[in-house]
Design goal:
Shape: globular
Strand content: 5-15%
Structural class: alpha/beta
Radius of gyration: 19 Å
Number of strands: 6
Number of helices: 9
Largest sheet: 6 strands, parallel
Oligomer: single chain
Helix content: 40-55%
Order of helices and strands: EHEHEHEHEHHEHHH
């Protein structure tokens, strides 16, 4: 059986650029077929209303909506549209989505909330395309190296396995904290685990500075140092995440969970070994 997965992207968070790639890292997984529908950088209700129906035309076994702030007008409209059909659906969002989890429960929609997927410093005086890309690269490094992405991968793969086995889809209700991320990261060295934990927490907390600089301050002389500080935190977090992985590499204890030839998840630790 081939499991059909529909993904709707609206706006961008750090998980967005690699989401479908986490499911098929070598582009040869035989048991899934994925389609991605996007509204681009904008996430207003009018864009969402145009894009979401297209995923239903694909007739997926389940679908996912990923965006910043699931409570914003555009994502809220997407949740409304997805709740109206009979296709199992869940949302992937950043920390503000935690406050909407009860509402999503009522709508019959699942959720994955990535607490360390932070808001960017979206001030015109600060954010140009280069800074935007650099920030997202740092966030991707943190989410990858700490274990957050692996937890997203495992959550998807459980749903895929259930669909493949003819079971009803159990929608996720997952809030990815630092504890859950580093547990999925499979760190063998306690210092590596501590660095990964610190990286995740820093990345989550920098969103508070970006929120302050973007929404609570008016004078550019005041908010520019604040958003710049937030982006410096992202850089430091990425460095810590890299250091954590380097420690594991030096001990030959990096956990790898590739998809196998039948689509199942393999596992290995030692570099010179084959996944089982």
């Amino acid at each position: 059986m081939v499991v059909k997965i529909g993904i709707v992207k609206s706006g961008n968070i750090g998980t967005s650029p690699v989401l479908e790639l986490l499911l098929d890292e070598r582009a040869d997984r035989p048991n899934i077929d994925v389609r991605v529908f996007s509204s681009g950088a904008k996430m207003n209700p009018e864009q969402v209303e145009e894009v979401v129906p297209k995923v239903k035309d694909f007739d997926p076994d389940f679908c996912v909506f990923i965006s910043p702030n699931p409570g914003a007008p555009g994502p809220a409209k997407a949740r409304e549209l997805l709740s109206e059909g009979d296709i199992p659906a869940f949302v992937i969002g950043d920390a503000p989505g935690k406050g909407k989890k009860d509402e999503m429960d009522e709508q019959g929609i699942g959720y994955i909330i990535v607490m360390a997927d932070p808001m960017i410093g979206a001030r015109r005086e600060w954010l140009d395309p280069t800074e935007m890309a650099s920030f997202n690269a740092d966030v991707i490094k943190v989410l990858a190296a700490t274990g957050a992405y692996r937890l997203v991968q495992e959550t998807f793969d459980k749903i895929i396995a259930d669909v493949d086995a003819g079971k009803d889809v159990e929608l996720p209700k997952l809030i990815i904290t630092a504890d859950k991320a580093v547990e999925a990261g499979g760190f063998a060295n306690p210092y590596a685990k501590a660095k990964a934990y610190a990286a995740y927490e820093i990345c989550g907390n920098l969103a508070k500075l970006d929120t302050k600089g973007c929404f609570m301050m008016k004078d550019y002389k005041d908010f520019l140092p604040v958003v710049a500080a937030a982006h410096e935190m992202a850089r430091v977090a990425a460095n810590l995440a890299t250091e954590a992985r380097e420690i594991e590499k030096s001990n030959d204890t990096v956990m790898r969970t590739p998809h196998m030839g039948d689509g199942s998840i393999g596992s290995k630790v030692e570099l010179i070994s084959k996944p089982q």
